[in-house]
């Protein structure tokens, strides 16, 4: 029997491992199963180059829980270790066997199947164990099995033992503080999380838990549409079918594989982020991928696998590295190319999916200049008066330039955010031949503000920002059918309206136009809309009062009736009601003012009935 002290690179590393090295104790299972995968893949490599001539069989990894003995055992059928190798790889903390193996067999294996790089993974077992035993037998002929034991102190024992088959059994004696890891369901949940796609079969409770050949490890040419859809169901069993997907496959200047799916998203933007999982050689690492995947693509679902993404020693956190930025740029380019391809090859399908695609595209255009350059070609604007009719930017310019170019030579893009609420404004603009597009999702307010300065000679104006006559250019002509005295009287009646921040103006509009039209200046309304959805630095605007322009159509016949009325009190109530109706159409009449409007309306109708 050999006894000795663990040779560590730093003084008393065990407390550090137990408390600080791994942020989540359940990671010990990932580390130990990953080591078992390494041992298995090493054996396969040795067999492929002729250095192992024995019977390979079908190696698998078995996880066994014994609640009575309070042990958890991870067993593999891999290369195993001799006494000398145990002394070298286990007793010298932070000496990585995987790293040495890769260096030795450089050129004969690409390393894609060797997971470990740190040499500390095994010691994560001491986070949850009062004692750890290793029973191992090397694949090399004429070697003796050995047993290693350590209780978490620097002292260990190493002795010969009997073991029939090659491979390694790691036996963890779970400590009192960690008895959660003696629960069958807890272990299964952890194994399914970390080992779902490991390349070697992992069995627990007589059942294989993993898919050893997930879709992203295969060539796109070998996969059908059904294969991609089935893999999505495997990842997200209860999710609605994805719109489409992108298969990532690059080996220079970094290794990266994966499949990213575009989920169907509604206007409410209610979707879970953190649905992209990062793997390293099929080992789950994290679903915190914000440093790898651009922010605007965090709503995608799927898997990214790369051995080149730098991780810290616990494999839990990304570290700053040029590769991370390169990978992010590559993913952005692939997404832009895919969207452009779908748009060019199947525009009808692209338009049908635009409600979801538009969220990604607009978010990306705001945050990534290179993506924006490509997206300018496939950005779509839907005509709100003809649902299903879409314009590209160039098409909208062609359609609208003649009528919607203002005196500053800017094309005015008219838009609506609510077809029902803004219907009267939409119809008024449509009657002038204007093209009104729908911009009604949660990112549109920010999108307009962000893109307007970038697009030459274009500006956005909501269709209810002014009366139709003034949407493109302010129309100074105002020919009223009222006499000077009638106009004076009408101004006096509207002057009694108590609403604050209301600017009243009489204009001679068409007799078909509404008697009172309420509009809100584009800039201030847009800022308040941004503030409402939590725009950064916008809270100041949220507290600002609404600016309201009230245009009185002096040519509407109803004013002749009101002015002919002899009862001044009744005149004021009628005018107030017309003003309140216009405010109501813009959702600007609330609380006590709304109650007063209802009561006043009933009063006026009752008076009419008596007369």
UniProtKB/TrEMBL annotation:
One of its GO terms (molecular function) is unfolded protein binding. ATP binds at residues 31, 35, 76, 81, 96-97, 168, 315. Gene3D superfamilies: 3.30.230.80, 3.40.50.11260, Heat shock protein 90, C-terminal domain (1.20.120.790), Histidine kinase-like ATPase, C-terminal domain (3.30.565.10). InterPro entries: HATPase_C_sf, HSP90_C, Hsp90_fam, Hsp90_N, Ribosomal_Su5_D2-typ_SF. CDD domains: HATPase_Hsp90-like. Pfam families: HATPase_c_3, HSP90. It comes from the Bacteria. SUPFAM superfamilies: ATPase domain of HSP90 chaperone/DNA topoisomerase II/histidine kinase, HSP90 C-terminal domain, Ribosomal protein S5 domain 2-like. Keywords: ATP-binding, Chaperone, Cytoplasm, Nucleotide-binding, Stress response. The keyword ATP-binding applies. The keyword Lipoprotein does not apply. Belongs to the heat shock protein 90 family. This is Chaperone protein HtpG. It comes from Chitinophaga agri.
């Amino acid at each position: 029997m050999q006894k000795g002290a663990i040779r560590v690179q730093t003084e008393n590393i065990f407390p550090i491992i137990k408390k600080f090295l791994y942020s989540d104790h359940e990671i010990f299972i990932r580390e130990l199963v990953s080591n078992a995968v390494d041992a298995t893949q090493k054996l396969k490599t040795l067999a492929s180059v002729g250095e192992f001539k024995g019977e390979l069989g079908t190696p698998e990894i078995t996880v066994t829980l014994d609640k009575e003995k309070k042990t958890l055992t991870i067993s593999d059928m891999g290369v195993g270790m001799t006494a000398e190798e145990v002394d070298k790889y286990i007793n010298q903390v932070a000496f990585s066997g995987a790293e040495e193996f890769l260096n030795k067999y450089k050129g004969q294996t690409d390393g894609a199947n060797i997971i470990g790089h740190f040499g500390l993974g095994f010691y994560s077992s001491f986070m949850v164990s009062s004692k750890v035993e290793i029973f191992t037998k090397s694949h090399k002929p004429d070697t003796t099995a050995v047993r290693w034991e350590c209780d978490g102190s620097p002292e260990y024992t190493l002795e010969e033992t009997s073991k029939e088959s090659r491979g390694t059994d790691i036996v963890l004696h779970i400590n009192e503080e960690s008895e959660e890891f003696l629960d069958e369901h807890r272990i299964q949940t952890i194994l399914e999380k970390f080992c779902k796609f490991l390349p070697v079969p992992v069995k627990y409770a007589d059942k294989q838990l993993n898919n050893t050949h997930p879709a992203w490890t295969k060539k796109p040419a070998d996969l059908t549409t059904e294969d991609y859809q089935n893999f999505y169901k495997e990842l997200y069993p209860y999710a609605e079918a994805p719109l489409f997907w992108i298969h990532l496959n690059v080996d220079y200047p970094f290794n990266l594989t994966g499949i990213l799916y575009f989920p169907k998203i509604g206007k409410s933007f209610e979707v879970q982020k953190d649905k992209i999982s990062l793997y390293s050689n099929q080992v789950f690492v994290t679903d915190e991928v914000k440093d790898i995947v651009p922010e605007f693509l965090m709503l995608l679902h799927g898997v990214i696998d790369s051995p080149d993404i730098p991780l810290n020693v616990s494999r839990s956190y990304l570290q700053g590295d040029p590769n991370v930025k390169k990978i992010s740029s590559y993913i952005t380019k692939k997404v832009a190319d895919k969207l452009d391809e779908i748009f060019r090859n199947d525009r009808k399908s692209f338009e049908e999916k635009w409600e979801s695609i538009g969220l990604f595209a607009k978010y990306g255009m705001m945050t990534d200049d290179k993506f924006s350059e490509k997206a300018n070609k496939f950005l779509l604007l839907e005509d709100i008066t003809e649902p299903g009719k879409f314009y590209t930017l160039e098409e909208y310019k062609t359609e609208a330039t003649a009528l919607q170019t203002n005196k500053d030579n800017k094309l005015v893009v008219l838009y609506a955010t609510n077809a029902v609420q803004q219907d009267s404004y939409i119809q008024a603009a449509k009657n002038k031949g204007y093209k009104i597009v729908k911009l009604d999702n949660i990112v549109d307010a920010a999108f307009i503000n962000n893109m307007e300065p970038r697009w030459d000679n274009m500006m956005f104006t909501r269709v209810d920002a002014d009366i139709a006559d003034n949407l493109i250019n302010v129309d100074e002509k105002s020919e009223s059918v009222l006499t000077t005295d009638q106009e004076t009287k009408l101004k006096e009646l509207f002057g009694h309206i108590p609403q604050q921040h209301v600017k009243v103006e009489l204009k001679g509009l068409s007799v078909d136009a509404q008697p009172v039209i309420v509009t809100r200046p584009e800039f201030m309304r847009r800022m308040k809309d941004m503030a409402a959805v939590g725009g950064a630095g916008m809270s100041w605007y949220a507290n600002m009062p609404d600016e309201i322009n009230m245009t009185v159509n002096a040519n509407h016949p109803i004013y002749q009736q009101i002015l002919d009325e002899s009862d001044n009190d009744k005149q004021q109530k009628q005018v107030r009601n017309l003003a309140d109706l216009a405010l109501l159409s813009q959702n600007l009449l609330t609380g006590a003012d709304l109650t007063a409007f209802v009561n006043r309306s009933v009063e006026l109708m009752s008076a009419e009935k008596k007369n």
